[in-house]
Amino acid sequence: MSETEHVLQHHFDDLKQQHEASTLGMWAFLITEVLFFGGLFAGYAQYRIRYPEAYALASHHLDITLGAINTAVLIASSLTMALAVRGAQTGRRKATAGLLMGTVALGLVFLVIKSVEYSHKFHEHLVPGRSFSFDGPRESQLFFSFYFAMTGMHALHMIIGVVLVTIIAYFAWRGRYSPQYYSPVEVTGLYWHFVDIVWIFLFPMLYLIGRH
Question: Is the pTM for the entire model greater than 0.85?
Answer without folding.
Answer: yes
